[in-house]
Amino acid sequence: MRNTLPLLFCLALLSGCTSLVKGSIALSVRDYDTAIGHYAQAVKDDPESLYARNRLGLAYFSKGDYAKAIEVFEAVLAKKPNETFATFHLGMSLIGKGDREAGFKRLAKYSKDFGAVQERYVRQEAARLAGHPDLSAQEIFTALKEAEELGIIEQYHADHPDPGNSD
């Protein structure tokens, strides 16, 4: 009984949350099937929400269901070509499914509005990784996520120069 009280409390709190919030919580604890269910409901509730579709695609990707992730990210890109999140994760999903050539080709199209530095980091890393057929999909995913994160940091520094630094 002692261990069930916190769980019941959490369930009571979650009952009023939106499907997107519930999906994000489930995804954060790697409960992919639950996350997929909540994100699918969010898409049903708001079919025009690219955010909800991207989250659904991310849940499928995280689960390793690359075929479903590809389907979702392609639907996002049909509505908004070159959408950054969908482009990045579609490329990775194609690689995960085993179609490295198509995945790297998609990543070469990675485009970030107002983010040329981040864009360059991802594209350069994708081009570098394409020349390494020995790498596993997981190694590629890790390297691409690191490139994306480094690009975000460098983009921030490019957009917000240190006034005390004269370089």
Task: Please provide a brief summary of the model.
With 167 residues, the protein is mostly helical. It has helices at residues 4-14, 19-28, 32-45, 50-63, 66-79, 84-97, 100-107, 116-130, 137-159.
Overview of this protein structure:
- The chain is an all-alpha fold.
- The chain has two domains: 48 residues, no CATH class; 96 residues, Alpha Horseshoe (Serine Threonine Protein Phosphatase 5, Tetratricopeptide repeat), CATH 1.25.40.
- The protein contains nine helices and no strands.
- The longest helix has 23 residues.
- It starts with a helix and ends in an 8-residue tail after the last helix.
What name is given to the CATH topology of the largest domain? Answer: Serine Threonine Protein Phosphatase 5, Tetratricopeptide repeat
**In what range is the share of β-strand residues?**
under 5%
The rounded distance between the terminal residues' Cα atoms is 62 Å
User: Mean pLDDT, rounded to whole units?
Assistant: 88
* Cα radius of gyration in angstroms: 18 Å
Largest sheet: none
Shape: globular
Overall number of strands: 0
Parts with pLDDT < 50 across at least 5 consecutive residues:
none
- Please write the string of helix (H) and strand (E) elements: HHHHHHHHH
Number of DSSP helices? 9
CATH class value of the largest domain: Mainly Alpha
CATH architecture annotation of the largest domain? Alpha Horseshoe
Taken together, the total number of domains comes to: 2
